[in-house]
Every structure is written in structure tokens, then in C-alpha cells.
Specification:
This protein has five helices and 16 strands. The chain is of the alpha/beta class. The chain has a nine-stranded mixed β-sheet.
Length: 253
């Protein structure tokens, strides 16, 4: 388990994520990692980066599922439309992470400690600069990205069950999801949260923005915007902007 908090992935939600999967695997050359279904939603993840995991990030796609038992994601999509849903941070100690969140003046919600293998809590957009932040502790041994990619490339994707459409064949070498760009009216406050509370290291301060990085290579750039929330995903190897399920994918500068 990592000793520091890590930005693990960005999640996008829609009633139908098929177009996003085809874009991620076809235009970006992404690799499907795994997926499944649970009460209220069904997730799957795509790695957008080289197969040696030397750079890049994972994108999680979420669809409402079994909404008669839990309709939180269905309500989100109906209210907000398709688009970015949350950022997930893996933490070595959830209770310690929650103490840090509370010390920052925020109130974590939906705290679930019922499964020792996966304990989680959330910080809502009003307190997390326009996006949901999930903090999660996985007490079971998950393979790191390199080993997971190697397993998938050798043996195929584990689906529990597989519910997604067939990936689109890649049109070129894998692109690299370089960073998530978050807009906020309070850049200083966002850096204090994502950096000070959630362990991001400041690696660049240019053009009115601040870029943070985590030990696993994930990056988040914070920019001054009137409207808070995920503004875009910047991708190396992308020639022009694409809007996919309410999310802007832009060429990385």
C-alpha cells in the first residue's frame, strides 16, 4: 500500500458511456483495465497512457444501474447531464485522511467502513471546488498499474461481469492523459486542499495556474475560473479538442 495519498483516477458519468469508451480506446489507444456492476451503478476503467504505465492516468466510466435500489448516479446524470463525476484518491489510512479533511474545515459524507477491503468517504462539490472527491482505503492487495496492464495485455480483461461495448481498435500509438484541469474561483484554497490535505506536490506555477503531481505520476492543474469544477482533460497525442459525454478532451500544451 502506498505510504502517501495518490490521485488514482478521474470518473465520468453518463446514461450511456459507449461513445466515451470508443473514443478512449480508438482515438486515444487506451486499454480497458477492468469493470463490473454494483447497486446503483456499473463502472469500468480505461488506462490512457503507454503500456509500461510510465505516464498517464486512468479514466473511470460510470453508468446508472439497478437504480431501483440506489438512484444516486441516475439523479446526478438527470440533474447535471453527462460529464465529470469525481476524482478518486487512494489513501493509506482512511481515518487519518478523514481527520485531515475535517481539520481543513470540510465535512466528509457517506462514510462507509463496512467492508475492510474497500472503505470510502466523499467530499461534496461545494467543499471540493466543484467536483466530488472520493477518498478510499483498499486493504486488499491491488496490483499496481504496471502489473495490472501486463495482466490485461497477457490474459484479457476481468469483468464482473463485462457489460460494456467492444473497445474500438486503436488508430495509433497510445496517447497520454497528462492531467486533469480543475477550474475554481479560489486557486489558493484548491491548492491547499489538493496539495496540503491530499498530498499533491506543486511542480509548476505558470500562466495563472498551479500544477500538482502525486508519486504515481497523476497530475492535476488548478486554474482560476468563475465556475468551479473539472474544466477539461489534457491529452498528449491529441490534435484537437473533442467533447465526449459532456467532457472536454484537449491537446496538452
Amino acid at each position: 500500500m502506498a505510504e502517501r495519498i495518490e490521485l488514482d483516477h478521474v470518473a465520468l458519468a453518463a446514461a450511456d458511456t459507449a461513445d466515451a469508451l470508443r473514443f478512449l480506446t480508438g482515438a486515444l489507444g487506451g486499454t480497458v483495465l477492468f469493470g463490473g456492476q454494483t447497486v446503483g451503478f456499473r463502472p469500468m476503467q480505461v488506462w490512457v497512457g503507454p503500456h509500461d504505465a510510465s505516464a498517464g492516468m486512468a479514466v473511470e466510466l460510470l453508468e446508472p444501474w439497478a437504480t431501483e435500489h440506489n438512484d444516486f448516479l441516475e439523479r446526478f446524470v438527470r440533474r447535471q447531464g453527462a460529464g465529470p463525476h469525481h476524482l478518486t484518491f487512494k489513501v493509506p489510512d482512511l481515518q487519518e485522511a478523514l481527520a485531515r479533511v475535517r481539520a481543513s474545515g470540510r465535512t466528509p459524507v457517506k462514510i462507509d467502513l463496512s467492508d475492510p477491503g474497500w472503505m470510502e468517504a466523499f467530499v461534496m462539490p461545494a467543499e471540493a471546488h466543484g467536483t466530488v472527491v472520493q477518498v478510499a482505503q483498499a486493504d486488499v492487495e491491488f496490483p499496481d498499474r504496471r502489473r495490472l496492464l501486463d495482466h490485461v495485455l497477457r490474459h484479457g480483461v476481468d469483468g464482473n461481469p463485462r457489460w460494456w461495448v467492444d473497445p474500438e481498435p486503436s488508430t495509433g500509438p497510445p496517447a497520454v492523459l497528462r492531467r486533469v484541469v480543475l477550474g475554481t474561483p479560489d486557486v489558493e484554497g484548491a491548492v491547499a486542499f489538493f496539495g496540503g490535505v491530499l498530498d499533491g506536490d506543486t511542480i509548476d506555477e505558470r500562466d495563472g495556474g498551479v500544477e500538482l503531481a502525486w508519486d504515481n505520476g497523476s497530475r492535476l492543474r488548478v486554474e482560476s475560473r468563475e465556475r468551479a469544477g473539472v474544466d477539461r482533460l489534457e491529452v498528449e497525442g491529441l490534435a484537437r479538442d473533442h467533447d465526449v459525454i459532456g467532457t472536454r478532451f484537449a491537446p496538452a500544451p
